[in-house]
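Input record (Table S2, row 354):
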Amino acid sequence: MRKKLRIFFTLAFAAVALAVVACATHGAVRAPAPVASRTVTPLIPGTYIEEVSGFKPGFRVEVTLSANRIENITVLSHNDTVIIAQAVIDSIIPTIISQQSTAVDVVSGATLTSFGIIQAVQNAIAAAGGNPADYWAPVRSSPQHLSRTAIIDPHGTPRGPERTPRRWDESHDIVIVGGGHAGLMAAYAAANNGAQVLLIEKMSFLGGNSLITGGQMAFHDSRIAAEAYRRLNLPPDTAEQHIRDTVAGGDFQSFLPLVENFVHAGPFILNMLLDNGLTVREHITMPGGHYGFRVYGTTSGQGDDVIEVQKRMIERAGIDVRLNTKMVRIYREGNQSGRAVGIAELPPFEWTQS
Ligand SMILES: Cc1cc2nc3c(=O)[nH]c(=O)nc-3n(C[C@H](O)[C@H](O)[C@H](O)COP(=O)(O)OP(=O)(O)OC[C@H]3O[C@@H](n4cnc5c(N)ncnc54)[C@H](O)[C@@H]3O)c2cc1C
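Output record (flavin-adenine dinucleotide complex):
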């Protein structure tokens, strides 16, 4: 029988500790007064369009205000990475409106985009003759957030229980931790080979660092290579040269079987991405450190094009994805030295309404 990888929710473990710390922690977190009971400078009702900077300049936000409320916030256009900005839009905007506060938690990994939206709302309040400070009320976190505090060790690292739990909350064939290029591809490969897969991602969006790469990918061959080399009048590349360059680029520290696997599997991976809708630029280049024409670039010039394709692939493969869920411990056989048998995960927390 196939062994399953299991999950223990640290939240369940933290429940007892929570009772101990809840009083102290809860006392320190102030709930915002409902806006109706706050003294606010009256606003000139209307729709205000503000242009601010997110990660990049050009974030245009429409803010609708009534006399004493933030009624609606719509992002009209922006130049930030689409997936990252969308994660901010989906989480921060509903929270600002429900809490009637701009003192909301920023989205980790998207701090500048978050600040951009917050700034736009504050600018609109000022433009409407109001005082932005009236809408700066600390929001109250849910008990799940307190449980996070309860399991932080003296070094500040959240952890699950030390010992492998006797009972597990869930059981899966394969659990993939992290939804960047690597995790998404691993999840897809496992599901395609018949495994039931759960993918967890600590951020509120998939993609990780892979979203913001230069979108440059090295493959010694592909199903579009022959035509491109002919059109661009370039000499074809070889797997052997790609392996030599990769080993030299790694200062001869590489594990050769891994490099060989990476190079020989490369064309299969690019072909699969192309078959699933990836588009690449017309040129195949030879950047520094490479001695063959083998680098393909995504149309956007970022990794987000590839992530979009990978997201569609895992969706079609029916993979269960859990966002805002952080792995905090790996349990292993043999006194933590053997193969992984399970993980502890920290489920998401939510801000509560005031
Ligand atoms: C600015 C920049 C440009 C780059 N340009 C290129 C390029 O053009 N070409 C190239 O080949 N390489 C490039 N790289 C390198 C490339 O980004 C990485 O090699 C690649 O993205 C790594 O993919 P990954 O899936 O391993 O990691 P990531 O994409 O970082 O994914 C890891 C994921 O795991 C999640 N995670 C981490 N810990 C946990 C946890 N405990 N629980 C749950 N989830 C967790 C993270 O949130 C993240 O989503 C670039 C890197 C940077 C930073």
